[in-house]
C-alpha cells in the first residue's frame, strides 16, 4: 500500500490499523494486523487466545499497541488529546465488567453518562432512560445490579456502551448470557445503529454474526486468517458439509445432531455423500481445521 | 422497545464541566457513605457528651474528631476510590481521564473538613472547660491552632490520604491497616514525649505525624505544655495534604499533567520537611508545667 492510499484509507475508514501488533512479555497476542473498518457491523471470530480481546481493547483505546499504527475516526489514540477525542465518540463493552456495590442499573449508567460528558441533568436522564429501554431494562432501572442475573448485568453493561449512539461501538461478547428473545432485540438495536456507526462485534456466537454482519474477520494466533464477507466465508464451505449415519473418518469435525445423524465438515468430502447447506459455523470450523499451518489470507488476495 | 435510536445521535449535552458534575456526584456518594456517617455520628456524640461536665483535660476530647472524621473518613474515601475499580475497563475508556476522576474524588474531603470545622466551633463555643489553663501555656491564638490541628486538619487529610491510597494500593484492607499504624505511631511518639518531652529529637518525632498532642496532664490541674509550634505544625499537616493530593493525581497522569505533578511533588516534600523543622524549633524553648 502506498503512502497516498494509506492516508486516503485513514481518512475514509472509521478505524484504520496498519501493521498493528501487541506483545505481552514473550507472548505475541497480535501481529501485523492491517484493517480498515467502515460503518456497518463487523464480526470478529476466533478461538480462545486468538487475540480478539486484545484487538478489541486496542480499538477501544484501553491498550496501546507495541507496534504499528491505529487511527480511530482519523485520530491517533497514542496522543492523549486525540485519545480523549476518540473516547467522546466511542462506546465500549468489555468482555468482563464488574459493578460497584450498591449501584442500580440506572445509577451506574447515569454515572458512566456523566463520565461521557453528559453533564446537563435532564438530557442525561433522558439518555439513560433511552438506553435502558433499548436493552429492555426499563422496568429494572431501580434494581441493584448485584441482585441481577448474569444476562441482565450484561445488558446494563451494553446500555452504557450505547450512550449517545456512538459512531464507533466496540462490543466484546455482548450477547453472552443473554436470553434468545433479548438477543433478537439487541440484534435489531445494533443493526439500526450500524446504519451510521462502525460496530465491531467480537463473539463466539456465529449465529449473531450470520444474522448481523456483512463482514467477518477471523483471527487465529494473533493473525487475521480471514477478512471478507460472511457469504464469502460460508461459500467456502459449500460441498464440504454433509450428513451421515456415522461420523465420517475423513471429517475434520463431526458431531451428532438432534436428528440422530452426524454432521461432518471437511475440506474434501467423499463421493456420494448427502451434502447440506453450510452454516457460518461450518465455514468457521472448516477454516480453523482445514489446514494445519494456514497462511493468513484476505478475501481479495486469497 | 420504544426508544429512538437515530434521534439520539448527538453530542453529549454539556451544561457544566465534567469535573464539577463529577465532584458533586462524588460528594453526594461520600456524604451517605455508612462508614463516614458512623464517624460523623460518633464525633457528634463525643462532642455532645464532652459538653455535659467540666473538661479538665482537653486532650481527652480533641482526638476523637481526628479519629472519627479523619480515620473513618480515610477508610470511606479509600473504599469510594476503589469502588469503581471493577468497572475500570468501562470507566477507563471514557473521556474523563483518571486525574480528573481523582481530582473529583479529592473534593469529598470537603465534607469531613466542614464537619471538623463544625466540631471546632462546637468545642470552642460549648465545651465547658474548667479554665483557660486547660489549654496549657499557649496564647489564645495558639490554642485555636492546637484545636485546628487536632480536629480540622486530620478531618481534611484523612480522606485525601484515603484517595491516594485507593489509587495506588490494591489491598482492600490498606486503609484500615494504615489507620492502625498511624494510631499506633501517634500513641508511641506521645508516650516518648510523656517521659522526655524536651529533647529536640523527641519533639521532631512527636510532630512527625499527621496529628500531635501539645500538652499532657497530671493529677487534675497540672498541665505541661510541650515544645513545638502549633501554627507551623498546621503548615506541615497542610503540606502532607498537598502531597496526598499530588500522589493521588499522579496515577494515570500523562504528558503535561504528569510533568507538572512530578515537579510539584518534590517541592511539596521540601516544604513539608521545612515546616516540620520549623514546627519543631518553634514554640516554647522547653516544656512548661503550670
Short description:
Chain A is 33% helix and 25% strand. With 302 residues, chain A is α/β, with parallel strands linked by helices. Chain A is globular, with a radius of gyration of 21 Å.
Task: Give an overview in words.
The complex is a heterodimer of chains A (302) and B (290). Chain A has 302 residues and is α/β, with parallel strands linked by helices. Chain A has ten helices and 13 strands. Chain A has a six-stranded mixed sheet with strand order 5-6-7-3-8-9, with helices on both faces. In chain A, β1 and β2 form a beta hairpin. In chain A, α4 (105-115) crosses α5 (121-134), α4 packs parallel to α6 and α5 (121-134) packs across α6 (150-161). Mean pLDDT of chain A is 88; it is low at 1-11 and 291-302. Chain B is built from eleven helices and three strands. In chain B, α1 packs across α5 (98-106), α2 (34-50) runs antiparallel to α3 (63-83) and α8 (174-195) packs antiparallel against α9 (200-207). The model of chain B has no long low-confidence stretch (mean pLDDT 90). The chains are: A alpha/beta (302), B mainly alpha (290). The interface between A and B is large, with 50 and 38 residues.
Topology:
The complex is a heterodimer of chains A (302) and B (290).
Chain A lengths: L2 H10 L2 E10 L2 E11 L2 E6 L6 H8 L7 E6 L7 H8 L2 E4 L11 H11 L5 H14 L15 H12 L6 E5 L7 H14 L4 E5 L3 H7 L2 E6 L2 E7 H6 L5 E4 L8 E4 L5 E4 L8 E2 L4 H10 L13
Parallel strand pairs in A: 3-7, 3-8, 5-6, 6-7
Antiparallel strand pairs in A: 1-2, 1-4, 8-9, 10-12, 10-13, 11-12
Helix pairs in contact in A: 4-5, 4-6, 5-6
Chain B lengths: L17 H14 L2 H17 L12 H21 L4 H4 L6 H9 L3 H17 L13 H29 L5 H22 L4 H8 L7 E4 L3 E4 L4 H21 L4 H27 L6 E2 L1
Antiparallel strand pairs in B: 1-2, 2-3
Amino acid at each position: 500500500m502506498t503512502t497516498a492510499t494509506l492516508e486516503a484509507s485513514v481518512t475514509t475508514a472509521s478505524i484504520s490499523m496498519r501493521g498493528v501488533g501487541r506483545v505481552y512479555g514473550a507472548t505475541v497476542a497480535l501481529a501485523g494486523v492491517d484493517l480498515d473498518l467502515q460503518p456497518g457491523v463487523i464480526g470478529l471470530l476466533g478461538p480462545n487466545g486468538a487475540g480478539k480481546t486484545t484487538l478489541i481493547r486496542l480499538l477501544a483505546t484501553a491498550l496501546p499497541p507495541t507496534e504499528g499504527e491505529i487511527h480511530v475516526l482519523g485520530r491517533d489514540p497514542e496522543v492523549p488529546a486525540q485519545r480523549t477525542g476518540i473516547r467522546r465518540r466511542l462506546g465500549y463493552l468489555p468482555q468482563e465488567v464488574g459493578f460497584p456495590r450498591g449501584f442500580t442499573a440506572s445509577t451506574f449508567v447515569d454515572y458512566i453518562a456523566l463520565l461521557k460528558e453528559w453533564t446537563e441533568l435532564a438530557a442525561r436522564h433522558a439518555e439513560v432512560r433511552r438506553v435502558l429501554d433499548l436493552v429492555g431494562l426499563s422496568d429494572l432501572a431501580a434494581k441493584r445490579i448485584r441482585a441481577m442475573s448474569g444476562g441482565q448485568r450484561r445488558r446494563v453493561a451494553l446500555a452504557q456502551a450505547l450512550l449517545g449512539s456512538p459512531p464507533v461501538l466496540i462490543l466484546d461478547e455482548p450477547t453472552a448470557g443473554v436470553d434468545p428473545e433479548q438477543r433478537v432485540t439487541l440484534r435489531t438495536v445494533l443493526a439500526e445503529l450500524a446504519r451510521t456507526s462502525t460496530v465491531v462485534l467480537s463473539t463466539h456466537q456465529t449465529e449473531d454474526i450470520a444474522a448481523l454482519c456483512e463482514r467477518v474477520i477471523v483471527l487465529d494466533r494473533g493473525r487475521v486468517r480471514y477478512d471478507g464477507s460472511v457469504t464469502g466465508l460460508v461459500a467456502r464451505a459449500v460441498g464440504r458439509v454433509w450428513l451421515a449415519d456415522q461420523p465420517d473418518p475423513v471429517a475434520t469435525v463431526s458431531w451428532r445432531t438432534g436428528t440422530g445423524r452426524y454432521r461432518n465438515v471437511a475440506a474434501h468430502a467423499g463421493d456420494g455423500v448427502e451434502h447440506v447447506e453450510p452454516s457460518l459455523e461450518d465455514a468457521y470450523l472448516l477454516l480453523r481445521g482445514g489446514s494445519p499451518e494456514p497462511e493468513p489470507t484476505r478475501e481479495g488476495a486469497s | 422497545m420504544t426508544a429512538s435510536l437515530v434521534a439520539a445521535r448527538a453530542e453529549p449535552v454539556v451544561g457544566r464541566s465534567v469535573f464539577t458534575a463529577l465532584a458533586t456526584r462524588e460528594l453526594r456518594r461520600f456524604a451517605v457513605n455508612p462508614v463516614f456517617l458512623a464517624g460523623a455520628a460518633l464525633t457528634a456524640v463525643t462532642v455532645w457528651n464532652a459538653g455535659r461536665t467540666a473538661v479538665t483535660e482537653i486532650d481527652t476530647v480533641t482526638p476523637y474528631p481526628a479519629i472519627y472524621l479523619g480515620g473513618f473518613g480515610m477508610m470511606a474515601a479509600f473504599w469510594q476510590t476503589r469502588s469503581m475499580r471493577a468497572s475500570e475497563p468501562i470507566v477507563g475508556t471514557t473521556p474523563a481521564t483518571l486525574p480528573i476522576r481523582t481530582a473529583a474524588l479529592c473534593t469529598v474531603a470537603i465534607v469531613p473538613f466542614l464537619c471538623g470545622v463544625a466540631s471546632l466551633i462546637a468545642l470552642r463555643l460549648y465545651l465547658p472547660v474548667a479554665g483557660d489553663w486547660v489549654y496549657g501555656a499557649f496564647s489564645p491564638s495558639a490554642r485555636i491552632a492546637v484545636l485546628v490541628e487536632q480536629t480540622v486538619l486530620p478531618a481534611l487529610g484523612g480522606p485525601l490520604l484515603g484517595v491516594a491510597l485507593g489509587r495506588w494500593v490494591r489491598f482492600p484492607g490498606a486503609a484500615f491497616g494504615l489507620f492502625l499504624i498511624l494510631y499506633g505511631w501517634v500513641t508511641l511518639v506521645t508516650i516518648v514525649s510523656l517521659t522526655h518531652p524536651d529533647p529536640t529529637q523527641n519533639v521532631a518525632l512527636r510532630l512527625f505525624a499527621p496529628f500531635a498532642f501539645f500538652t499532657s496532664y497530671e493529677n487534675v490541674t497540672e498541665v505541661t505544655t510541650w515544645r513545638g509550634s502549633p501554627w507551623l505544625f498546621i503548615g506541615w499537616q497542610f503540606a502532607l495534604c498537598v502531597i496526598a493530593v499530588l500522589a493521588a493525581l499522579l496515577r494515570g497522569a500523562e504528558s503535561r499533567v504528569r510533568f507538572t505533578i512530578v515537579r510539584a511533588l518534590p517541592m511539596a516534600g521540601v516544604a513539608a520537611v521545612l515546616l516540620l523543622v520549623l514546627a519543631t524549633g518553634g514554640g516554647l524553648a522547653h516544656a512548661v508545667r503550670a
